[in-house]
Amino acid sequence: MMSKKAVLKAKKGAKISENIKVKNSEKPNYGYVALKPFLGITMVGVVGLIVALVGLFIDWSLSWVLLLVGIPVAFVGLYIGASYIPMHYLLLRPRYFTNVWKQIAENESVKGDEYLLDTGCGTGSVAINWAKILDKGKVVGIDIYGGMSGNSPDQAYRNAELEGIIKRIEFKHGNILEIPYPDNTFDIVTAGSVLHELHEEEDKTKALKEIKRVLKPGGKFITVELLRDARMFFAMLFFAFVWKPKQYWTNLLEKTGFKNLKIEEYKRYINYVMYIAQS
Ligand SMILES: C[S@@+](CC[C@H](N)C(=O)[O-])C[C@H]1O[C@@H](n2cnc3c(N)ncnc32)[C@H](O)[C@@H]1O
Question: Could you tell me where the DSSP H helices lie in the chain?
Fold first, then answer.
């Protein structure tokens, strides 16, 4: 949930201070910042395990209740704690996701002077990647910086400084549902694993319409989303419902009036799909 303060800042498109001083030994960090919610889930798993063990070893007529509650809670909590968080968010995502965007940027023919907006930019991995390619262009990243992800504008600017492109990039508070820019502004708009965070289809549609509005006629929208398939259910259990199958995004992009849809799948630990469409 976004805080009220985050909503207000996002609406105003508030600029973020860029007086960043990095240490010599510092490296860019594009990992998942907010570990607390997931550590909390792991702790719930540990409690479930304790409850199940108590149910197993004490001699009590209602021990089966402890087992019935403890076993599923322990399984889900520890599964998420042991596989989903460290594997995907800490180890694999920063590497694979950045590589996918590198590949996309290299495959797309760009002049190099484009004006690009990265929506839901987080710690800046997608935006910074494009700023390296668009060496005569300009990149803006917007984010609500208020959700569970723990992403911070400070880290985005640190990463930009460490990657040597801080002069061509700007990070701002901004909501994808109300993009703080006029119509026909950008040549390219990107969204890296952002649209699934809008839970209602109505909001996803609204976001796509906003993106179309700020794109110049014929401008490109590029988004990458994790693919909901059998592999994802294995890795994320019921959390897989957060993401969508390919057909869902295809339909939504077409419904909101995007044209010339190009789709590419990237096979990874959890599969990614790239969708490119023109306004
Ligand atoms: C999974 S993270 C991806 C961050 C970044 N694109 C990347 O690839 O590292 C999703 C991001 O979307 C942002 N976000 C969620 N809802 C948003 C909204 N309504 N407007 C702008 N950003 C949003 C979150 O704050 C978070 O930083």
Answer: 4-12, 36-57, 63-79, 93-107, 125-133, 153-162, 201-214, 230-236, 246-255
